[in-house]
Design goal:
21 strands; 18% strand; globular; binds NADP nicotinamide-adenine-dinucleotide phosphate
Length: 541
């Protein structure tokens, strides 16, 4: 088996540490990947940009940040001891607790000794002759490895719209995904929040409580549904711990990796009264049940979707006192569930507060950020703080911002210019031994992430057992997978909706499905079948 000790070699430009594998990112995927590769006896180095571990749960520390997945389903499933030791305090756990959890995991499994923090990867270049990747950090530090596993996350490259004058603002400004470690004091301040995606929706009601005044700049309203969070009781805790094996078995088979299961009945064939009662029942439940336990055809049939969408609009109208504001908050330009549903707590009620103003930037577009605040086509607003909840250059962004060069010096960024090109979302042709370890499915993050990490680990084990040193997909397999991703998305309402799923939130980004739009269970099956057939669709040498 492998020599788990890194080697150091001298080169013309200084010494280079050599590992069996380099993992980029110490988030949910990266931490587990490190654990699994260590078990195989590989020498591994993890490079993490942050000053701490946790990825998403390190960076997104804005007030209100929390799971939209049930806590017990989001935690790692691979250590019974961990499952029994860890007590989730809330049904939808908040960022501080989630960060603590991942730090607890890192300590429990002694992961930190292989993680180098404050280490942003600048480039990864494949040396064909040596079949090694050379990874260089922003600091200039260089390392080599046979395998590179990019566990960079799907939502880690922040998006800041290029507003004119953005640097001229004299107050404080923050992007939610780069929130400071120290508390940001908003008391007595005039605050702007730009963006009403899942982040803005979690953040705004909390800002509304603390700030002197909050102005929310909305471009597209979302169908937000009540989270209905609560504390986990001792009895519930006992039940989680007793039922973990059964629960994990189940969430590996559902469409999106949750306990919720779609109802196979056709929406409009269910009598109206019964349908209405079912909607109310779903609405009263916590979490994503109103989306993922709804009638399945709301994801494929626009009439079915509209029936539920109108139900949601009426829920919004009932909660917002000013009918003009309510109408602005009620989405009409896209179907329910075509974007990830923001789960909220007192979001709509915040607009009933005297200190909260909603500005529709479709009516009055943002023209510039000014030294004093923000100017729309109608007026200038003065602020002490501007918060950008403007999202991410999803999926491709975290990879294309690293200068990755494969065979014949081919640029990864250029190869992915028209959208992601992979086989099984695991690898891309021309970049051997580079694995993409981020959950690409529309799924409860950890559930699918674990599967991917295990697939990659099993693949590397297989290669070592068979004395194989190089793996990359065949061009045919890649082409067929790209087509399959596109076809799967076309069958759903996701395809024609503008969202980060389609890269449509970034001006100039090529429109393409970025996630696997089929069911997570199907994705799992596809990956497992390829592996069972000796990594069918890959060339192993
Ligand atoms: P997002 O969904 O992309 O929302 C970004 C917001 O910024 C949108 O309202 C967008 O408007 C607005 N925006 C962007 N550019 C703008 C511009 N030039 N002018 C005005 N408004 C602009 O990003 P996000 O809210 O950070 O959420 C991204 C994903 O992260 C979610 O879908 C979810 O998967 C994940 N997330 C999960 C949780 C959780 O509960 N666990 C919490 C937060 C985020 P348009 O819609 O018009 O583009």
């Amino acid at each position: 088996m492998a020599n788990a000790v890194p080697q150091t070699s001298a080169t013309d430009t200084g010494s280079v540490d050599t590992f069996d594998a380099i993992i980029i990112g110490a988030g949910v995927c990266g931490l587990y990947q490190l654990y699994r590769l260590r078990q195989l006896g590989l020498s591994v180095r993890v490079f993490e940009d942050g000053e701490g571990i946790g990825g998403t749960w390190y960076w997104n520390r804005y007030p209100g940040c929390r799971f939209d997945s049930e806590s017990e389903t989001y935690g790692y499933s691979w250590s019974e001891e961990l499952l029994q030791e860890w007590n989730w305090k809330e049904h939808f756990s908040g960022q501080p607790e989630n960060e603590r959890y991942l730090n607890y995991v890192a300590d429990k499994f002694d992961l930190r000794r292989d993680i180098q923090l404050k280490s942003r990867v600048k480039s990864a270049v494949y040396d064909e002759k040596a079949n090694r990747w050379e990874v260089e950090l922003e600091s200039g530090q260089r390392t080599r490895a046979q395998y590179v596993i990019a566990a960079v996350g799907v939502l880690s490259a922040r998006y800041l719209p290029p507003f004119a004058g953005i640097d001229s603002f004299r107050g404080e400004s923050y992007h939610t995904s780069r929130w400071p470690q120290e508390k940001v004091n908003l008391a007595g301040k005039r605050v702007a929040v730009i963006g009403t995606g899942a982040t803005g929706v979690q953040l705004s009601p909390i800002v509304a409580k603390e700030a002197k005044h909050l102005t929310v700049f909305q471009r597209t309203p979302n169908y937000c549904a009540p989270l209905r969070n609560s504390l986990v009781t001792e009895e519930e805790q006992r039940q989680f711990k007793a039922n973990y094996p059964e629960m994990h078995k189940k969430i590996r088979t559902t469409a999106a990796g949750f306990m919720h299961e779609f109802d196979p009945r056709k929406t409009l064939q269910v009598p109206q009264e019964e349908r209405r009662a079912r909607y109310e029942e779903l609405w009263s439940q916590p979490g994503f049940s109103k989306w993922l336990a709804n009638f399945q055809d709301i994801m494929t049939d626009s009439d079915a979707n509209e029936d539920f969408a109108e139900f949601v609009r009426n829920k919004i109208r009932a909660r917002v006192k000013d009918p003009v504001v309510a109408e602005k908050l009620a989405p009409k330009d896209h179907p329910f569930g075509a974007k990830r549903i923001p789960l909220e707590t007192h979001y709509y009620e915040a607009y009933n507060q005297d200190n909260v103003l909603l500005v529709d930037v479709r009516e009055t577009p943002i023209e510039a950020i000014t030294p004093k605040g923000l100017k729309t086509s109608k007026q200038e607003y003065e602020f002490d703080v501007i918060i950008y909840a403007t999202g991410f250059d999803a999926v491709t962004g975290p990879l294309t911002q690293i200068d990755i060069r494969g065979e014949n010096g081919q640029s990864f960024k250029e190869k992915w210019a028209e959208g992601p090109r992979t086989y099984l979302c695991m690898q891309t042709v021309g970049f051997p031994n580079l694995f993409l370890a981020s959950n690409p499915a529309l799924c409860n993050y950890t559930v699918c992430a674990e599967m991917i990490v295990e697939w990659i680990s099993d693949c590397i084990r297989y290669m070592r057992e068979k004395n194989l040193t190089r793996i990359a997909p065949t061009p045919q397999a890649e082409e067929a997978w790209v087509q399959h991703m596109d076809d799967s998305a076309k069958r759903t309402i996701l395809y024609n909706t503008n969202s980060w799923f389609m890269g449509a939130n970034i001006p100039g980004k090529k429109r393409a499905i970025l996630l696997y739009a089929g069911s997570a269970a199907t994705y799992r099956k596809e990956c497992q079948e390829a592996a069972a057939k000796g990594y069918d669709g890959f060339v192993l040498q």
